[in-house]
Task: inverse folding
């Protein structure tokens, strides 16, 4: 008798109610803290948020009944918290990003529903290995096109179509995971088994190095031409993780790490933008205040804000996160750290950790290789992205521009991440679903059936 | 593939652990260091938005924090701003002067003595409030000094200091020209900055607290110190005969010293020399005491050292060591290289009044808890030095009383009360940079009353006034002001 997962949809609903309380409560707390009264649109806002959560939950109940029950509530809580903090910055800076973000969340949930509806079996994605790879490269190149590409804050990662702006890198991230998973499932044996053993390490064959070198070049290319250090780090790390998991050969990690070191050295030597970032990180205090270039302001203000928040925070709506330039996008973690304190920072880090852990759990129990690879890739992508952006804004590593998943203001990121969650739920649904009963019924028609089968 | 997935999971766990540790470092271990960094606008704004304690004179606040609707919650408001500005200074974002600076810890509530209040506020979730500072100032004396000095004209530059001789309490401290600290503390920083620039460009230096920050030749008021030194070192009395005459040639020099008034016969008593302010008597007296004796007595009265830190930037009054005989002779009547602040001259006067004991001057009478109004710390009388013996002081007092009764200091006489006083009209020794003419003399007046048991000692200094040079005289200009201040202290209801 094999172990059968329970559906746990009731648990999910309970956790979603908690997540809704976090989201709506935070929104109300922002109003109370900043203006002394609950925001007047609390009912319509809360209602809308609740409706989105109910729609997502019902979709999961109908289309992925065995899916992991923890993922959706975590995502809902993070999304709600992000909305509240964006609303808080709206109050300080007099813009209306929160309403816009709620629209993006609605689109995200719609795509979440669509993904679960259309993608009834994640293995079908294997058919699109090369299509999605091509699409990813096209998307990544789009910002380079004159006319629609725009340089924003030194990085050329945006496309503008009319009034609509979009960061194609966020969508490319999902497509690349699909491509890598599809490619690696086919080629894992060749990559894993053919090779030489040099100094205790299994090194792959020269011709198998091709794909990783291509990936390395693509990452460096993004960096050189688009000045997007964060994305190139993310793509390179993502590919390395998936290659290692597919081949089970630590040798790839050695190769990848060596390439990373060489690549880092090259970009440091030859790309001034990257060197600036590193110099800024090594002595941020020399780049803050009057009589300096003031490039360290974002980081310093974030550190000041987090210190000012202390253990329990200033309270939502009562800090000064508007002092951090672009607090609503890349630096939202600093804003939350200031207003919710170390308690809030650790809670957010823990929630991300749980998402990643849940993704890896789905990978571990998945019954097919492509599911394992995709879940690992998506989980790893979230982990790397969170590390790169949160580590960057908290001055742990040099600052690179990436969005904080589900928290940051920005449509492309939010929508792409909702799709990632849908795919993760799809994989975990199929992994946790009981195996169909394959024992054949013992009756008289068996022979006929066998005859039919023979013909 | 599960083994590498587990490895990757552990790797990701380490990434998140690093993030969590870094956040803990920033928000816990390193937080106070970050909060203390210069340029941390959050901390500066929070401090600026706190309810600051009041500065009190008597039972009235001269500076207090009033709730406002702008983003800083509280606006600092100064009452009788022009009269008290040199004392209070002003408080604005990232800067404070005067008492606002020296008492900042207590006024802002961060002082350790307010620890219990801070703890209670923390528990109750209230923003902590600063304590009140009560001053030693006598409002009537302050008003009298201010009104008196103002009455000399719109562009007068000068200062008045009044002390309580036996405690060192500062009863009045006025400096003109002055300014409106309300305009400097305004939350409209642009307007405040414009006003500050205008003030700092004004050649009359309204931001200067002349009572403690300006040192000038004290002129004849310094003779009370010379007399004290002569009595102390050479055993003279008020009735001792001293040489005087119409002229005195400086030792080792051809320069000749004259007197301002006639009446200095060739041999007169020390009292008469004081009454008519005979330079020709005090110059040789100082030479007789000697450079080191004069320096010793001057230092005992507070020259050449700092003793007042309750307001920023006290200027040190100077009596240089090792003067040559000619320089010593000039110092005998407060010229040459001697410079003194109005506070210093008040200290000499108060020292004579207090039987030769000089008390350390102080301005803060008490520090009061913001909540319970309990007095947490009181200003205490502290002896600075025994400058002369008690008998020396009483001899000098006799001379000063005679000077008010029938000498040059009669404008300070108060009917029915024995007043001691001395005038001074000091040559500036400077030339005006624009006109090339000699800068008009400074008018001084020092005095105390009642002479038998003094309650108030006062020094008046007029650095510049819009009257002809021939009209400038310490007695005529400073005497009435000193009188008004003494009367204000002696007749509090009158």
Result:
């Amino acid at each position: 008798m094999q172990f059968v997962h329970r559906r746990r949809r009731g648990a999910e609903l309970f956790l979603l109610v908690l997540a809704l309380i976090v989201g709506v409560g935070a929104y109300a707390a922002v109003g109370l803290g900043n203006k002394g009264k609950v925001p007047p649109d609390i009912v319509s806002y809360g209602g809308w948020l609740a409706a989105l959560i109910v729609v997502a939950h019902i979709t999961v109940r109908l289309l992925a009944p065995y899916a992991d029950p923890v993922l959706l509530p975590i995502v809902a809580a993070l999304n709600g918290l992000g909305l509240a903090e964006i609303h808080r910055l709206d109050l300080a800076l007099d813009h209306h990003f929160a309403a816009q973000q709620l629209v993006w969340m609605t689109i995200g949930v719609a795509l979440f529903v669509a993904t679960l509806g259309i993608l009834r079996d994640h293995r079908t994605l294997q058919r699109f290995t090369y299509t999605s790879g091509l699409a990813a490269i096209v998307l990544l190149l789009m910002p380079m096109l004159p006319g629609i590409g725009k340089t924003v804050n030194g990085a050329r990662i945006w496309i503008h179509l009319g009034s609509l702006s979009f960061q194609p890198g966020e969508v490319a991230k999902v497509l690349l995971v699909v491509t890598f998973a599809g490619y690696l499932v086919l080629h894992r044996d060749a990559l894993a088994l053919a090779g030489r053993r040099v100094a205790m390490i299994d090194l792959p064959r020269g011709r198998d190095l091709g794909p990783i070198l291509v990936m390395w070049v693509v990452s460096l290319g993004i960096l050189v031409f688009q000045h997007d250090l964060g994305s190139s780090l993310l793509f390179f790390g993502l590919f390395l993780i998936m290659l290692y998991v597919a081949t089970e050969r630590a040798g790839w990690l050695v190769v990848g790490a060596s390439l990373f070191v060489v690549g880092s050295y090259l970009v440091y030597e030859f790309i001034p933008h990257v060197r600036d970032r590193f110099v800024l990180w090594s002595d941020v205090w020399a780049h803050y205040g009057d009589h300096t270039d003031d490039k360290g302001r974002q980081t310093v203000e974030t550190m000041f804000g987090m210190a000012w928040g202390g253990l329990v925070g200033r309270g939502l709506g009562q800090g000064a996160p508007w002092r951090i330039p672009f607090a609503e996008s890349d630096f939202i973690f600093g804003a939350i750290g200031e207003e919710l304190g170390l308690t809030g920072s650790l809670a957010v880090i823990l929630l991300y950790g749980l998402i990643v852990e849940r993704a890896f759990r789905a990978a571990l129990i998945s019954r097919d290789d492509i599911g394992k690879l995709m879940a690992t890739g998506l989980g790893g992508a979230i982990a790397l992205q969170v590390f790169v952006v949160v580590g960057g804004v908290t001055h742990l590593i040099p600052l690179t521009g990436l969005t904080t998943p589900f928290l940051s203001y920005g449509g492309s990121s939010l929508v792409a991440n909702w799709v990632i969650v849908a795919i993760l739920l799809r994989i975990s649904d199929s992994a946790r679903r009981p195996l169909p009963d394959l024992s054949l019924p013992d009756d008289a028609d068996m022979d006929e059936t066998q005859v039919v089968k023979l013909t | 593939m599960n083994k590498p997935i587990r490895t990757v999971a552990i790797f990701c766990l380490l990434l998140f652990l690093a993030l969590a540790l870094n956040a803990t470092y920033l928000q816990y271990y390193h937080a106070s260091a970050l909060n203390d960094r210069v340029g941390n606008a959050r901390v500066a704004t929070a401090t600026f938005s706190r309810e600051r304690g009041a500065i009190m004179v008597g039972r009235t606040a001269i500076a207090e924090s009033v709730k406002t609707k702008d983003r800083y919650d509280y606006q600092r408001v100064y009452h009788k701003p022009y009269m008290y500005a040199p004392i209070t200074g002003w408080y604005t974002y990232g800067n404070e002067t005067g008492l606002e600076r020296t008492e900042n810890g207590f006024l802002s509530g961060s002082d350790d003595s307010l620890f219990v209040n801070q703890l209670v506020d923390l528990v109750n979730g209230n923003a902590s409030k600063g304590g009140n500072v009560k001053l030693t100032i006598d409002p009537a004396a302050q008003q009298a000094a201010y009104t008196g000095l103002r009455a000399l004209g719109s562009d007068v530059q000068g200062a008045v200091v009044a002390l309580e001789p036996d405690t060192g309490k500062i009863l009045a401290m006025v400096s003109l020209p002055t300014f409106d600290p309300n305009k400097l503390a305004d939350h409209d920083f642009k307007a405040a900055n414009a006003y500050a620039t205008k003030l700092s460009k004004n050649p009359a230096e309204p931001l200067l607290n002349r009572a403690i920050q300006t040192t000038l030749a004290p002129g004849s008021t310094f003779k009370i110190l010379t007399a004290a030194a002569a009595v102390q070192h050479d055993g003279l009395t008020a009735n001792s005969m001293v040489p005087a005459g119409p002229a005195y040639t400086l030792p080792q020099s051809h320069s000749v010293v004259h007197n301002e008034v006639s009446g200095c016969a060739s041999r007169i008593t020390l009292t008469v020399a004081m009454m008519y302010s005979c330079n020709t008597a005090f110059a040789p007296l100082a030479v007789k005491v000697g450079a080191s004796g004069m320096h010793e007595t001057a230092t005992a009265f507070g020259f050449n050292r700092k003793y007042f830190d309750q307001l920023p930037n006290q200027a040190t009054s100077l009596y240089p060591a090792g003067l040559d005989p000619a320089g010593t002779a000039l110092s005998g009547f407060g010229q040459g290289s001697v410079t003194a602040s109005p506070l210093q001259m008040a200290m000499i006067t108060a020292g004579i009044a207090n039987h030769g004991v000089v008390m350390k001057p102080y301005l803060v009478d008490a520090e009061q808890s913001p909540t319970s109004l309990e007095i947490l710390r009181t200003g205490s009388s502290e002896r600075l030095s025994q400058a002369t013996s008690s008998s020396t002081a009483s001899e000098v007092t006799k001379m000063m009383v005679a000077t008010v009764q029938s000498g040059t200091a009669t404008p300070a006489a108060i009917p029915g009360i024995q007043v001691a006083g001395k005038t001074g009209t000091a040559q500036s020794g400077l030339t005006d940079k624009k006109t090339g003419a000699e800068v008009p003399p400074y008018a001084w007046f020092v005095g105390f009353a009642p002479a038998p048991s003094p309650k108030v000692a006062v020094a008046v200094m007029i650095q510049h006034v819009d009257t002809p040079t021939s009209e400038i005289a310490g007695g005529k200009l400073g005497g009435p002001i000193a009188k008004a201040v003494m009367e204000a202290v002696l007749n509090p209801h009158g």
